[in-house]
Amino acid sequence: MKYEFEIRAIIGAQQEGDSIYFNYTTTASPSATPTLGSMNQGSTTVNITWNLQSYSENRCPITSLIADGSPNFYDVFPVVDSSLRQPYSMIIRHLRPSTIYLCRIYVVNSAGNSSALAIAIQTQPSDYRSFSINLTDNYSKY
C-alpha cells in the first residue's frame, strides 16, 4: 500500500508555512493464520468458525480460506472481505461418520497464503442426534 503525506506549519490565522510531502510504501504480506472460534461436528459435516487477522493489522484483501484435508477433501471457501473482518464460518461436507481427519487451514489474501494451521477433525457416529438447549429460559416459575 502506498501512502502520501503532506505536512505544513500554520503560524497564526493568516500565515502558513511551506508544505513538505513524503511517501511511504508498505509491503504486502500474507495474512496471519486464523484462530479457532468454534467447531460443531456432525456425522457427515463439520461447521468451523474462524477469527481472522484484523484489518488494522493487515489491509491486504482476504479472498478465500482453504481447508486442505487431502486426500479426503480440499475445499476453497470464497470470502467477501471488509474492514470489519467478522468471524468466518465454513462447512466441510461429505465426511464419513466416526472418522478423524487431519486438515490444514490457510487464509488467502492478495499477497499469498498464510502459514498452515494444522487441526484434527473428528466426526460423530452415524446415529448421533444433535439437540440444542435454550439456556435463556426463565425457570424461576418452577
Characterise the protein shown here:
InterPro entries: FN3_dom, FN3_sf, Ig-like_fold. This is Fibronectin type-III domain-containing protein. This protein is mainly beta. It has a domain at about 35-120: Immunoglobulin-like. Helices cover about 0% and strands about 50% of the residues. It contains no helices and 10 strands. Strands 5, 6, 8, 9 and 10 form a 5-stranded antiparallel β-sheet that branches. Strands 3-4-7 form a 3-stranded antiparallel β-sheet, with no helix packed on it. The termini are far apart. About 15% of the residues are buried.
Shape estimate: elongated
Category from helices, strands and their pairing = mainly beta
Low-pLDDT residue spans:
131-135
The value of Rg in angstroms is 24 Å
Order of helices and strands: EEEEEEEEEE
**Number of helices, where a helix is a run of at least 4 consecutive DSSP H or I residues:** 0
Give a short overview:
This protein is an all-beta fold and 142 residues long. 0% of the residues lie in helices and 50% in strands. The protein has strands at 2-11, 15-25, 35-41, 46-51, 62-69, 73-78, 88-92, 100-109, 112-113, 117-122.
